[in-house]
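Changelog-adjacent note: as of this version, every example in the card shows the full chain rather than a window. The one below runs 303 residues end to end.
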Amino acid sequence: MPQTGLARYRKLEVTELEGKLRSLPQAPLLVGEEGVRLSLAGAQGKAVLAMRGADFLLPMDGSPSTHILKPASGSFPDLVENEFFCMRLADALGIKVARVELGEAGAIGFLQITRYDRQEADDGSWERIHQEDFCQALGIAPELKYQEEGGPGLNDCFDLVRQRCDAPAPDVLRLFDAVVLNFLIGNNDAHGKNFSLIHEKGQTRLAPLYDLVSTELYPELSANMAMRIGRAKTANEVTSKDWRALFQGAGLGPAMAIRRMHKMANDARLRSSQLIKTAPMASEVLQIISSRAAAILALRVGN
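Full-length structure tokens:
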């Protein structure tokens, strides 16, 4: 049993890992209810484990995990490939995201996510890096993570970054890019707990993105955006006036913001076409990206 200091782990054989992943919730009762949220549906059971080389380890006695595993969901086909593609696309666009890989344990496929809030010490042990999601940072109860239920809106998020981050200007731009990316891929579930601040070496910054999924692919999920753009509840309702409200909340000039959006829209179309081979189902996401990119490219400073 691997041990470092007080940390304790037990190695998991592939068959045991497969059993543990198979036992995670796969058919939540909420699925099928109109407008259910992905996070509330419990569609993705998560296993927190540690990895040393190619070995999966079960943390014991509160020892730090290093990876999160999300197995394939029977309720939402291709969800693993969906998130893998969206995360890889964000990375290809130069947006900081958690590292993701596809893996298998027997017959169970999974998304393997490297935790960015861990670091390896000189003695080989793993240490936790303090982070807090936006709901925690704003003192909002986690069950109120959606704006329509009393959770934070985008203006609250930009204000938080300006007030708490040591380098607010680049982090505001990173948050703005995240909003545009979620619009492009059709991620309506980007709520207050899906953004975090990370505290490291005496500095506070916006954490890498995670949980990037095109929820628009699943008609049984809510079409309402977790955080509105301007006054728009759904992506299809977003107008130039709503984008301008976002620019104002982010403290960005319209000309600069639109140039940045145009570049991301063009880059997203190109990069997503190149990444199709990594996830065959991504052709459906590409259709959403193409439509949303066209809407962004129609924006002009004067309209």
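Structural remarks: The chain is about 35% helix and 20% strand.
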